[in-house]
Write a sequence for this structure.
């Protein structure tokens, strides 16, 4: 079978990556999608059960920190384009173990950039198709906003505070350096907080939905006054599809929901929704709220201005938050097996047996 493009998607077994892989596999049978993932605790092939047998889908278990293996994979699968999502993604873990964030997020990204450069920019090889290295990043690189500051734009100076955001900022800089120094065709997008199905329950929304269901305490950091800008994950995946196809090489696009919530207000919405769907008295579970020591270096507020993406490429979030959070709560309540499986880590034992 001849494929128009061989697209390497890294981190495709994770939360956002699995939604991106699903869109690309289903929408573009003319592309071959190579999902490269190390299957860390956050990578779960059960997220992709519905497309795992699609003819245009290949899964490769590999570590982006292994440069020689990246070169081999570029060569073996004749990679034309990269959509790079693989990363260590949880801020709290980065505070405990910054080295693994530098290793995966910085060195892993550099390995992929260099593999792309060596594969794509060799002068005697005519490109099979136009190349693109699309790097998926975060709004956290811009630092934090005060309550009355204007939103982050693509021109906001980088000012990361956590080891996670510092590692993502460094990876963004490497991507730009490869564009400016070697002429590697790149594009970057920086997105706000995602929510939706298949998110690992260490992050606020799935953790709290699960805890509310099981009457466990809800550990709210500090006073619960920090603000995040929430975007439904399928809207992020749609934006990635659009930027991949129509984004300008060398450019950066911000992606956000214009949907800011104080943590404590969002938590109360989740409580009401879970209580209602479980037939409890609405708000009954507020008693589970427990204020705990704040996260070190906790950024006060993130809020993204995605006007450029709207004006240039016509993207807008499709879901109102009320609808998105209802869908999300229902999904976690209906997929308790998935939650039990990831919290017990059983799938990892299975992968150890499968892949050694
Ligand atoms: P996630 O933690 O759910 O998934 C990360 C995936 O990367 C997992 O499948 C994991 O197995 C894989 N991975 C980790 N280390 C690897 C390695 N060394 N080699 C190969 N694969 C490896 O993360 P997510 O929330 O889906 O985030 C995906 C990307 O989007 C990240 O780059 C993150 O910085 C970015 N991002 C996330 C959000 C968000 O709200 N979750 C928002 C903006 C940007
Ligand atoms: O802004 C985009 C970023 O959003 C992504 O780049 C990250 O990969 C992603 O993890 C997310 O980072 P946050 O730190 O904002 O997400 P998290 O779900 O960890 O926390 C959301 C807010 O909730 C934050 O203010 C901390 C707070 N929180 C979180 C947890 C896990 C709590 O109060 N209690 C908790 O137990």
């Amino acid at each position: 079978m001849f494929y128009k493009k061989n697209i390497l998607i890294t981190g495709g077994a994770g939360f956002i990556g699995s939604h991106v892989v699903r869109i690309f596999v289903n929408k573009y049978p003319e592309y071959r999608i190579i999902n490269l993932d190390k299957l860390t605790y956050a990578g779960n092939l059960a997220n992709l059960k519905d497309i795992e047998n699609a003819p245009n889908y290949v899964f490769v278990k590999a570590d982006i920190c292994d440069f020689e293996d990246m070169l081999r994979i570029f060569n073996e699968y004749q990679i034309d384009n990269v959509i790079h999502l693989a990363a260590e993604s949880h801020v709290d873990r980065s505070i405990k173990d910054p080295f693994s964030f530098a290793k995966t997020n910085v060195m892993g990204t550099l390995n992929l950039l260099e593999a792309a450069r060596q594969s794509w920019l060799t002068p005697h090889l005519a490109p099979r198709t136009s190349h693109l290295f699309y790097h998926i990043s975060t709004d956290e690189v811009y630092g934090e906003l005060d309550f009355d500051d204007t939103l982050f734009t693509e021109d906001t100076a980088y000012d990361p505070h956590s080891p996670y955001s510092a590692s993502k900022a460094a990876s963004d800089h490497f991507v730009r350096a490869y564009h400016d120094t070697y002429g590697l065709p790149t594009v970057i997008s920086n997105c706000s907080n995602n929510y939706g199905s298949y998110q690992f329950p260490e992050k606020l929304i799935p953790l709290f939905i699960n805890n509310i269901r099981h009457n466990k305490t809800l550990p709210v950091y500090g006073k619960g006054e920090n603000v995040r800008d929430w975007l439904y994950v399928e809207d992020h995946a749609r934006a990635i599809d659009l930027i991949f196809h129509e984004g300008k090489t060398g450019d950066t696009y911000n992606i956000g929901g214009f949907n800011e919530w104080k943590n404590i207000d969002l938590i109360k919405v989740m409580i009401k929704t879970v209580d209602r769907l479980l037939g409890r008295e609405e708000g009954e579970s507020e008693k589970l709220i427990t204020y705990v020591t704040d996260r070190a270096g906790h950024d006060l507020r993130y809020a993204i201005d995605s006007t450029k993406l709207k004006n240039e490429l016509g993207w807008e979030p499709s879901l109102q938050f009320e609808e998105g959070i209802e869908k999300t709560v229902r999904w976690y309540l209906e997929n308790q097996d998935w939650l039990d499986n990831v919290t017990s880590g059983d799938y990892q034992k299975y992968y150890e047996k499968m892949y050694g």
